[in-house]
Amino acid sequence: MTLSDGLSDDAVRDALVAENARLAELVATADHATPVPTCPGWDLTKLLRHVGRGHRWAATMVATRATEVLDPREVPGGKPPADLDGIVAWLRASARAVPDAVDATGPEVPVWTFTGPKPAAWWIRRRLHEETAHLADAQLALGREVDLAPELGADGLSEWLDLLAARPAEMLPADVTLHLHATDVDGEWTIRPTDTGIAWEPGHAKGTAAVRGPAALLYLALLRRVPLADPRLAVFGEEKAVSAFLDATPF
Fold first, then answer.
1. What is the value of pTM for the model shown?
2. CATH code, residues 153-248
3. Is it the case that residue 181 has pLDDT exceeding 90?
4. Domain at 9-141: CATH code
């Protein structure tokens, strides 16, 4: 896969269900009171509730063709069962609800999103990468190695930059550009400041600072799930520029 290719619609759908199944399998025998250090104040119970309810929330907005944000607390079926087997089954069904809702409504039907009205299918990719981030949180909490596939890491990084680019906030000084370079897939990203926030583009460019490493680690570093000091990442140029950018982005 190359960055310009991206993931196909079918690959995004399959990955959402598959990554959700991996999370369900991981927590099926885990202590749900385990703290999640990458989400301060959370334990696994709260993480699972957040992921499952979030999937159902997105599915409900698609199914109702929402034109404004819905209160997640009012989502049908949004409260998970109390028993372990029940919450795992509930989590699995939650992910499947998103593509099912898109199919029933129509993938091109506009619905509310964080970045303005978008085709309903937009929500499948958004929920996939909500899933990949929180699967990593759970793996780290349980002392497991994060094993996100490189192509999912690359797509997650692009999707996150899309969300940041739609956010009107100062994240980079006017004279700072950043470059990210994946070492395990054909992926490079250049991030530049704009008058209203940031923009990004695929491809190589010299920046104020550059970060090289596996695509999944670049993605998780951008989400502040792994530190820039991770030995599998290499930072060139002004490391403080990268750190300042990360500090200016939402958690």
1. 0.96
2. 3.30.1050.10
3. yes
4. 1.20.120.450
